[in-house]
C-alpha cells in the first residue's frame, strides 16, 4: 500500500507543476497554446487536489488539501526539483513537460493497477490526462527539434539543461527503463541528441531539499490564503 509520504510527494509534484504552468496564462506565443497550457495546469491542479486530500486522510492529523497546499514551508514539500524549475523559454517548458509527464503517466498507471481502491481511482483518471500532456509535449518537441536552425538549437539546449533533473524521479523505483523507452524515440525523431548518462544529477526534493526557486513560487501560491487565514468565501 502506498503511504502518506509517497502520496504527498505525487500531490506536490502535481501542485507545483500546476503553479508553474499557470504562469504561462496570457503569455504563450499563440492563443491556442495559451489555452492548452492553462488546461494542462488545471489537470495538474485537479490531480493535486485528489492526492493531497487523500494524503491528509492517510496522515490522520486533520490536515486537508488546503492546509497541505498553503500552510507548509518549502522544506516540508516533497516535489521533484524538475517540477519547481523556472519555466525558462518555451523550449524549456516543453522539455520539462515531456520529461515530467512521461514519469507521471507511468506512475499513475502503477496506482491505477494497485490494490488501494482510492488511489486506483485517482490514478485511472490522472493517467488519461498525463497521456495527453505527454502527447502535447512530444508534438512540440518534434516541431521545435525538427524545425528551423534556431528552434532546433533552443530545443537541444533545453533538453541538455533539464536532463540532469530526470534522474531524481527514479531513485526509489525501477521506472526509468520504461521512461527512457518513451522519451528516447521522441528525441530521436526530433533530431535531438540524447544527453549522455553519468554526469551531474541533482536531487533532494523528495527529502525537502529544494532550489531557491520553490520559495518564490510558494510565496506567490500561498500569499492570499496566509493573508486571510481562516476566511471563507
Radius of gyration: 17 Å
Low-confidence stretches: none
Distance between the termini: 37 Å
For the record, the count of structural domains works out to 1
Which CATH class is shown? Mainly Alpha
Q: Helices and strands: which structural class?
A: mainly alpha
Summarize the helices and strands and which ones pair or pack.
Layout: H1 4-22, H2 31-59, H3 65-70, H4 81-84, H5 90-112, H6 117-145, H7 149-162, H8 176-189, H9 212-227
Helix pairs in contact: 1-2, 2-6, 5-6, 5-7, 5-8, 6-7, 6-8
Key words describing this protein structure:
single chain; 233 residues; mainly alpha; Ferritin; 9 helices; 0% strand
Q: Would you kindly provide a written description of the structure presented here, covering whatever features stand out?
A:
- The protein has 233 residues and is mainly α.
- The chain has one domain (4-227): Up-down Bundle (Ferritin), CATH 1.20.1260.10.
- The chain is built from 9 helices and no strands.
- The chain has helices at 4-22, 31-59, 65-70, 81-84, 90-112, 117-145, 149-162, 176-189, 212-227.
- Helix 1 runs antiparallel to helix 2, helix 5 (90-112) packs across helix 7 (149-162) and helix 6 (117-145) runs antiparallel to helix 7.
- It is globular and about 55 Å long.
- The mean pLDDT is 96.
